[in-house]
Structures are given as C-alpha cells and as structure tokens.
Hints:
Elements: E1 4-6, E2 15-21, H1 26-35, E3 49-61, E4 65-81, E5 88-102, E6 116-119, E7 122-128, E8 133-135, H2 136-145, H3 175-181
Parallel strand pairs: 5-7
Antiparallel strand pairs: 1-8, 2-3, 3-4, 4-5, 6-7
Helix pairs in contact: 1-2
Amino acid sequence: MKQKIQLSDYEVDETYEFVAKNSTDPWISDILNELEADIDKSEPFKKGKLEISFEVLRRVAKPLADHLTIKGYFEADYQTPCVRCLKLTDQHIESDIFGAWVNESLMKLPEFEDECFRINGHEYDLYTLDKGAIDLKEFIHEQVFMNVPFLPLHDENCKGLCQKCGVNLNETSCSHQSEMDSPQH
C-alpha cells in the first residue's frame, strides 16, 4: 500500500478496499515503531502489530465537490512501559476512522469551520488535499495517537518505584516505604 494516494487515481463513485499492515508496509512500521519508542530495545519485548482496513471512495457531490473519503478501522497491539513502575505492559487500541479530503478553497467557507462533516450518519474529519494527494501516514498517525492511553499502567493498583532507591514496590518493599508512610512526611 502506497503512503500517498492521488485523487486522480480513483474513479468517481467506485469504492476501493485496502488493508495495510506493519509486516508489509514500511510506513505502517514507522508508526508502530513510534508507539514502541519508549521500550528499552536491549531487553526482550514482544514486537507489536498495527493493521488498518479501509475503503477509499471518490465522490463529486455538493457541498464537498470532487473529494475523497476514507472509512475504516485500525487495530494495534504493542508494549509500552508502565508510567509508575516501568514494567512493560501490553496495550490494545482500536478505533473506527473517518476522513474526507477536499479542495483547499472549500475549507475557507463558513460551513467547514468545524473541520468535520456528516456523511451518511458518520462524522468525517475534514482535511485539505495536497496537490490532489492524501498522505495516509499522516492521517493514520493522527488517528492512532489520538487513541493511545496518556498514562499507561500495567495495573491500576500499581505501587510504582520507590522515590529514594528505585526498587519496584510491586515486587518487594524497602525501608524507605515505611518512612514515606509515616505521618512526619
């Protein structure tokens, strides 16, 4: 699957279906590598996966004029460090994706101020065609990272690391913990 697609490559009112995976598409691998950027690669870890299934439709209809829509779904499984104890934690994110690309001149009209538009009951984010092209990597990157947990935890009851000696308090205790729990602190 190419990272950039051209409006002119698609026939009007024809639907084209695609699947993009990190195992076959280098630009998808780049997004997955960014999801896994905080992993210490010198330690063993389970390599994740990112897969996107979507359809592209070119339409010529008011009020969007000649435009492309992408409707689909992505799913990602990856590991990232817990924000409290740094233990690798499995993460799973998935979401529907909806995007519509229009000519730049339309984006200046008042009805497009919200940068989203309803088409067939779905809310599509509006984007501007760049010389008649769409950068899929940019769009998918945005969609994936809008769904990444802000503070990933391996367990919501994670005790974290001791602030003084750095021991993982989920696995063992330390003398500093009793000091931290005392009323004088």
